[in-house]
Write a structure and sequence with these properties.
alpha/beta, ten-stranded mixed β-sheet, nine-stranded mixed β-sheet, elongated
Length: 496
């Protein structure tokens, strides 16, 4: 016999919030929404209220402010979730500022009781409860104390089976508030500003009776309200191994769209792999990436590109633009300077699912790092690991570009020490030939697969990348000094 009590979970109407709460908000729970001014507490409360309130399930919103609710509503009406038809129909606003100003908790409790009995609400909000806390410093003689008030308020609202939210600033390490002990749920909102970027984050500190997603989760406030981007969860694949642990050899091979490159990779890029294309500015990384996407469309494989770089304007790039307009390739193009990895992964995975994409390009990691808010740059390497692992779990094939400074005398694959995350690496370099710079490329690795170890010269034309013959002698490519190369044609002609 099952004796467990079933707790209904309510959908909050805030994108991403139900996910980090562990499936929604427990009905009849007693919750706190805390944070400093400007973090979005009141907006989140209203967004939840307008999503849940109906005539059959009315809401009471108590304001404990010196200003009338009309002023607060004026600003909340700017959000698309606001529904004027619900005001005074399924949502009622009550101002408690007069009762609170009298420093008498008995009268505050009596007024709340009166309103709750009259409406029998399913949802109750008190904003800002901090005002009550401040007034408690000047208690009226004979009035009940704050702790008793909180306990009685909790009992009252639970007895009426209402889901309750107290909004305010409560968290203090020096003086923890008694309201925290009786709360079933505690949502903490924060924001940090660095130069011209601002990052908002939230954390579910407490939610009784269910497993929540740990950690800090970024969110934005837009004209639609609050949208939360849950931190990506890395799942360990118990079946076929993933990019970080090695990949089986029986995967299908994808064509790259560049003659001879498939041959260099050992027959094409294995499906589901992650490929890093590293090289200095102008070496052709973006060209290779866009050819990879357009070849996918030709083979019936939709793709997605996340662009952080200035896109060139050659004819083959315009072809990519045509594919984007035809929605055969999805585009995420941003110049924002306050992104988080979680926001990019969230938008990217949604676009992958919508388009049923199998190829993904991120161009470039260098631009990505600049777009990420300074708050997250210290953990950029760890974030890249989570992003690559999440995309690998989706089964897509990922190509990432990374800009490197070409010093001629050393060879690096990534400025982030993240080359180990990828299954394959292509490096592009410049070499000096008769006082001119020439481009060369080499396949450094293709995990669990044979590949060419040749260094090949290539050119960029109006048609894209054209790979030539192997370079037979070049001392400066893998170390040493820049030197004159001897190519296959020179040897055949017998020139020095």
């Amino acid at each position: 016999m099952n004796t467990k009590v079933t707790i209904r979970r309510l959908n909050t109407g805030v994108p991403g919030l139900d996910q980090i709460l562990g499936g929604g908000l427990p009905e009849f729970s007693f919750n706190l929404i805390v944070g400093k001014p400007g973090t979005g507490k009141t907006t989140m409360a209203h967004q939840i209220m307008f999503a849940l309130a109906t005539r059959e399930r009315p809401a009471l919103f108590f304001t404990v402010l010196g200003e009338p609710p009309l002023k607060m509503l004026r600003y909340q009406q700017q959000f698309s979730f606001f529904d004027l038809d619900k005001v005074n129909a399924s949502i009622r606003y009550v101002n408690l500022s007069d009762e609170v100003a009298m420093h008498n908790f008995d009268q505050v409790l009596a007024r709340i009781t009166q309103e709750v009995e009259a409406l029998s609400p399913a949802l109750v909000f008190v904003d800002s409860f901090r005002s009550v806390m401040l007034e408690s410093q000047h208690p009226r003689k004979g009035s009940i104390k704050l702790q008793q008030f909180i306990q009685q308020l909790g009992i009252l609202l639970s007895g009426w089976q209402a889901t309750t939210f107290l909004i305010g600033e409560y968290l203090s390490e020096r003086n923890p508030n008694p309201v925290l002990t009786v709360a079933d749920g505690l949502l903490s909102l924060e924001q940090s500003v660095y130069r011209n970027s601002m990052v908002r984050q939230m954390q579910v500190i407490k939610m009784r009776g269910q497993a929540t997603r740990p950690g800090m989760h970024t969110f934005r406030i837009t004209s639609a309200g609050i949208e939360i981007f849950p931190a990506a969860v890395v799942h360990v694949d118990s079946g076929e191994t993933t990019a970080a642990t090695g990949v089986s050899q029986n995967r299908a091979r994808l064509t790259m769209g560049i003659p001879r490159l498939d041959e260099m990779l050992g027959g094409g890029l294995p499906s589901g792999y992650s490929l890093l294309v590293a090289g200095p500015s102008g070496s052709g990384k973006t060209i290779l990436a866009t050819k990879f996407l357009s070849e996918g469309v030709r083979c019936g494989e939709p793709g997605v590109i996340v662009a952080f770089e200035q896109v060139p304007s050659r004819s083959w790039i315009r072809t990519l633009d045509d594919l984007i307009r035809k929605e055969q390739i999805g585009l995420i193009n941003t110049r924002s300077l306050d992104l988080s990895i979680d926001e990019i992964v969230h938008n990217l995975t949604n676009l992958i699912h919508r388009m049923k994409a199998t190829r993904v390009v991120i161009d470039s990691l260098s631009g990505f790092e600049l777009a990420v808010a300074p708050t997250f740059r210290e953990d950029f390497r760890e974030s890249l690991f989570r992003m690559v692992t999440v995309l690998s779990g989706l089964g897509v094939t990922v190509l990432m570009t990374s800009e490197l400074e070409d010093r001629y005398i050393d060879l690096r694959f990534s400025p982030y020490g993240s080359a180990f995350l990828t299954d394959a690496i292509i490096v592009q370099r410049y070499i000096e030939v008769d006082s001119r710079l020439k481009r060369v490329m080499a396949v450094v690795k293709v995990r669990a697969s044979n590949h060419s170890n040749e260094i090949r010269q290539f050119e960029i034309t109006d048609e894209g990348i054209e790979i030539g013959d192997p370079v037979l002698d070049y001392e400066g490519l893998l170390g040493g000094r820049p030197t004159r190369m001897v190519d296959a044609d020179t040897v055949v002609r017998g020139k020095p």
